[in-house]
Write a structure and sequence with these properties.
316 residues; Rossmann fold; 11 helices; binds NADP nicotinamide-adenine-dinucleotide phosphate
Length: 316
């Protein structure tokens, strides 16, 4: 039996997907032994310099005294950033082109849902009302993306291909074909002012928490819509509710919430202008994600090179 290095998989206790992750990761890395942290004794734990993580408890990571970096199997790492704020452990997040394409498909699907007035026709059906509304071509609508990273850039391509005018906003300026790119706080207002459908694909950081709030809603033209596929707390819920109630916002498609699962008594469930999704816009593909983790770890083992790590200062 050749020597195989041990790779602990560290996840939240009783994580329902742990078995599937370990099996997919093991298939992708036959030269490594991928095991749950609980299966390793203290001596084996001391040998580990890298771990694969899915929402790990900080105490569990402390049981790996020689850990140099961790590879998360999720794209969003805000919970780890908060849990590990006093540690200098390097964190690599998942950047999977397949995940970005899955997200781009979801963005296109729900933008089309709003563009073709589906919530309105569903309300009309419930009232047995036969009434056609004017059609506006995709070319006549502007879809704006908050965030032009892996997810935002893929979504921009799909939306352009579907004929929409596309704008995008990021911290540093991007250059994307046929996309009007805005950057920095001072340009956000300008972009919002020309937006029909706003799609949020930002990471949750101290800067982005609540950024889609009263000020942003008042900058949008009356009758704009919102899609939040990023993280719940980026949208200020009370400001959202007020904007929906006073008609400034026509509809909101929400896949992510401050508390998940969304509590039974949450107002979003029953608001006529809200579509609730149970965090399904871009499910991770175990197989493609494991292949990416495997290639990053193989490169580290062969050349000592770490993939790009999360910026502690920026929080993403
Ligand atoms: P990413 O590649 O890190 O891109 C983040 C983008 O947001 C970048 O363009 C970045 O600007 C921009 N940004 C960050 N902070 C900003 C600020 N303060 N002002 C303006 N722009 C800012 O992230 P990603 O892979 O696209 O993923 C985005 C988020 O999607 C994840 O963090 C996660 O929360 C969410 N997600 C959700 C699901 C789901 O199923 N609902 C699945 C996967 C991911 P720069 O380019 O200038 O850095």
């Amino acid at each position: 039996m050749p020597f195989r290095t041990t790779l602990p998989f560290v996840c939240a206790p009783s994580s329902p997907s742990a078995g599937e992750w370990i099996s997919a990761l093991q298939d992708a890395m036959p030269d490594e032994r991928v095991v749950l942290l609980s299966e390793l004794d203290a001596a084996a734990r001391a040998m580990c310099d890298v771990a694969i993580v899915a929402n790990p408890l900080p105490d569990d990571l402390r049981q790996l005294p020689n850990l140099k970096w961790v590879h998360s199997v999720w794209a969003g790492v805000e919970r780890m950033m908060a849990d590990l704020r006093d540690s200098d452990l390097k964190i690599v997040r998942l950047v999977d082109p397949q995940l970005a394409e899955t997200m781009a498909e979801a963005v296109l699907a729900w933008v089309l849902y709003l563009h073709r007035d589906m919530p309105r026709y569903a309300r009309q059906q419930a009232a047995r009302q036969w009434l056609a509304h004017d059609y506006v071509r995709a070319e006549g609508k502007t879809v704006s993306l908050l965030g032009l990273g892996a997810m935002g850039a893929a979504a921009a391509r799909r939306l352009r291909a579907a004929g929409f005018k596309v704008c995008g906003w990021s911290r540093t300026r991007k250059l994307l074909p046929d996309v009007a790119c805005y950057a920095g706080d001072e340009e956000l207002h300008d972009m919002l002012g020309r937006t029909d459908i706003l799609v949020c694909l930002l990471p949750l950081t101290p800067e982005t928490r609540g950024i889609v709030g009263a000020k942003a809603f008042s900058a949008l033209p009356e009758g704009a819509s919102l899609v939040n596929f990023a993280r719940g707390p980026i949208v200020d819920d009370q400001a959202l509710r007020a904007a929906l109630d006073n008609g400034r916002l026509l509809h909101a498609v929400l896949d992510v919430f401050e508390h998940e699962p969304l509590p039974e008594d949450a107002w979003q469930w029953v608001h006529p202008r809200v579509t609730v999704l149970p965090h399904v816009s871009a499910p991770t593909d175990y197989r493609t994600a494991s292949a990416i983790v495997a290639s990053n770890i193989a490169r580290y083992r062969a050349e000592g090179v770490l993939p790009e790590t999360v910026d502690r200062q920026l929080g993403y």
